[in-house]
Design goal:
Blueprint: H1 7-10, H2 17-72, H3 79-90, E1 93-97, E2 103-106, E3 120-122, H4 152-171, E4 177-180, E5 186-189, H5 214-233, H6 253-260, H7 263-281, E6 289-294, H8 307-346, H9 363-411, H10 419-447, E7 455-458, H11 459-471, E8 477-482, E9 487-490, H12 492-508, E10 515-523, E11 526-533, H13 559-562, H14 567-577, E12 581-587, E13 591-599
Parallel strand pairs: 8-10
Antiparallel strand pairs: 1-2, 1-6, 3-6, 4-5, 7-9, 10-11, 11-13, 12-13
Length: 604
């Protein structure tokens, strides 16, 4: 038989560990560079998006500020200072023009061209309810109050009523804050939600704070008069005008209309109320204007991948790739060398039992140590196999030789086939049968085909059955002891076989005046079955070998006095098949204790 080919010529190039490590390191380097580039692009994109979002927020602030100016001023004559202040704050160009593109105010120098299109329309009476923060549902800026603004005297009076009500609330343990509306009216609000308090103590509900002032009454009356004509045109009763609130921001008109009218009437009446309010507020607000927003004097920084930047990225990627491959090659070489030594040792003929030197303490060193341990165990198992074959031949040869010899002398007429001779031949055949049965049990256990027929087994009855089977012929005294009612989920026949082997072995080593005790007790969730004797015991150097096959402590003992040497290995396999373990403790001259630890079973 030819020697195996060298590993370098037998393993394909693409499957070598070194090549695979190099490929892996290259992929890692490429992925790391790609991930870094992606992260840089993603970070830049996120920054640009945040910058864009900040610009949009600044635009909304500009629109809100200019809409507030228009809501509180009848014209744009003084808006230039506000426009320049907003431009300096945001860094944007801000320009206001009339609808026909006549410049009203511009933060850029005179003569600078306007952007191609307006960013928004500034009209406090027609605000964008989806983008204008704080806008009313009706589309009127809440800061446009016009004739609803309280006079100084009325504000003093309302402030006094508000503080009086706040003091009343505090007496009942209700904490409130004071807030002022654009009309100048003082209101009580909840400190947490900022809205009106949910509950009003009865003692504080005098209604004086919410009573409209003369200014508000006059303005509301004028608004209702403006709404009456529109309501009549819509085919509604002019009396519906009383549903309008006491101010532009005091009451949600739509809620009042919905509560008093049907859906159809509400849809017809609402435009009349909005039109009346806008007509009333129109003289008090600035006219509509177009808002233009530019980038300012400082141009925006754009993300541009120039050829120089591309060269830098490619250079860094190449450097990372080269360093990664070089480091991987160095590490892989150190890893491959001991693996090649292991491969060469494993390819040697089995009978050599080659070892490899352990030079490192890493995983490769652990693998080399495991390989050496495996070689040692294989050598030991080979020696045991040879010894077992020799022992089996010896165990079978002796009784067969006796049977053959007696049969030959009987055939030749030298000895008469009397009952004593037949009994001796029968005894020899039983020895043969016992050895064969033991070997069959061990073969089934090694192959994993040992069948168990489990059922609930009571431990005290099991011990009594085993003791009864040996008590008649036992030279020593047999005792049983069980602590409580203990159960096993086991094969009763196999358990009697295991305990019987231990009892038989104990009786062979116990003098006639000695004692063999079978005991059962609980240890946590396990059950311990013990076979203790007061015999000769086992020497400490022999204890590790008692469960080896065909092993006897005294080599001079025959199979009749020392057994076949298979009983204890069978016990170990039977207990392992039940999920348990067997252990032995012995002291020369005082006896031995064999302990079976088995999982406890439920009480049936």
């Amino acid at each position: 038989m030819s020697a195996p080919a060298p590993p370098g010529r037998r393993i394909p190039l693409h499957k070598r560990l070194l090549v695979r490590l190099l490929i892996t390191s290259g992929l890692i380097a490429v992925c790391s560079v790609a991930a870094t580039a992606w992260l840089a692009v993603a970070t830049t994109t996120q920054a640009l998006r945040e910058e864009q979002g900040q610009a949009l927020a600044d635009d909304m602030d500009v629109l809100a500020e200019l809409s507030g100016y228009a809501a509180t001023h009848p014209d744009w004559s003084g808006v230039t200072a506000t426009v320049r202040e907003l431009s300096a704050k945001t860094g944007r160009r801000i320009a206001l023009t009339t609808p026909d593109r006549r410049v009203v105010a511009d933060s850029a120098p005179r003569g600078t061209a306007l952007p191609p299109s307006a960013a928004a329309a500034v009209d406090p009476l027609h605000t964008d309810t989806y983008s204008e923060r704080g806008a009313q549902i009706a589309g009127i800026d809440p800061r446009a109050v016009g004739p609803y603004r309280l006079t100084r005297a009325e504000r003093v009076q309302v402030d006094a009523l508000a503080r009086k009500r706040q003091l009343c609330f505090s007496r009942f343990g209700v904490k409130t804050d004071l807030s002022r509306t654009p009309t100048g009216r003082m209101l009580l609000t909840d400190p947490d939600s900022g809205s009106a308090p949910d509950a009003v103590p009865d003692a504080c509900a005098d209604g004086r704070l919410n009573t409209p002032t003369p200014t508000e009454k006059k303005a509301v009356k004028a608004a209702r008069e403006l709404a009456r004509a529109c309501l009549v045109e819509k085919g509604l009763s002019a009396e519906y005008a009383v549903l309008m609130g006491s101010g532009p921001g005091a009451v949600d008109v739509r809620e009042s209309v919905t509560g008093k009218l049907g859906d159809k009437e509400a849809r017809l009446a609402q435009p009349c109320f909005d039109k009346a309010l806008r007509t009333q507020l129109d003289p008090y607000v600035a006219p509509a204007a177009e808002l233009f927003l530019g980038t300012g004097d400082t141009p925006a920084v754009l993300f541009d991948m120039s050829p120089a930047n591309k060269a830098k990225v490619v250079g860094v990627a190449g450097l990372v790739f080269a360093v990664t491959v070089a480091a991987t090659a160095l590490v892989a070489g150190r890893l491959v060398r001991p693996l090649r030594a292991l491969t060469a040792a494993a390819q040697q003929p089995p009978e050599l039992h080659v070892r490899v030197p352990v030079t490192t303490r890493d995983e490769t060193g652990i693998l080399a140590a495991a390989f050496n341990d495996l070689s040692e165990r294989r050598e030991r198992l080979e020696a045991q196999r040879k010894a077992m074959v020799s022992d089996i031949a010896h165990e079978l040869r002796s009784p067969l030789t006796n049977i053959r010899g007696w049969l030959e002398v009987t055939r030749d007429g030298v000895v008469d086939p009397d009952p004593a001779l037949l009994a001796s031949l029968h005894e020899e055949s039983l020895v043969l049968q016992r050895v064969i049965d033991d070997l069959q049990d061990l073969a089934a256990a090694d192959a994993g085909t040992l069948r168990l027929h489990r059922e609930p087994v009571r431990c005290d009855e099991l011990l009594q059955q085993v003791a009864a089977a040996y008590r008649v012929t036992a030279p020593a005294e047999l005792r049983t002891r069980a602590e409580g009612e203990l159960w096993l989920d086991a094969d009763p026949v196999r358990m009697r076989q295991a305990l019987g082997n231990l009892v038989s072995n104990a009786l062979r080593h116990t003098p006639p005046d000695g004692t063999v005790t079978l005991a059962a007790r609980r240890d946590g969730d396990d059950v311990l079955l013990e076979v203790a004797d007061t015999g000769s015991g086992i020497a400490p150097e022999d204890l590790p070998h008692v469960f080896d096959r065909f092993w006897r402590a005294e080599k001079s003992r025959s199979r009749r006095t020392g057994g076949s040497g298979l009983g204890l290995p069978i016990v170990r396999h039977l207990v392992a098949a039940h999920g348990g373990t067997v252990d032995v403790a012995s002291e020369p001259g005082k006896g031995s204790v064999f302990t079976l630890r088995l999982p406890g079973g439920p009480t049936p």
